[in-house]
Amino acid sequence: MSELAIELSHVSLAHRGVPVLADVSLELMRNDYLALLGPNGGGKTTLLKVMLGLVRPDSGTVRILGRAPTRAHGQVGYVPQHVRFDLDFPIRVLDVVRMGRLAARPPFRRFRGEDDTAARAALERVEMAGLADRRIGVLSGGQRQRVLIARALATEPRVLLMDEPMASLDERMGRNLWELLDELSQKMAIVLVSHDIGAISHYVRSVACLNVSLHGHPGRELSAEALEAAYGCPIELLAHGRPHRVLARHGSDES
Question: pTM of the full predicted structure?
Answer without folding.
Answer: 0.81
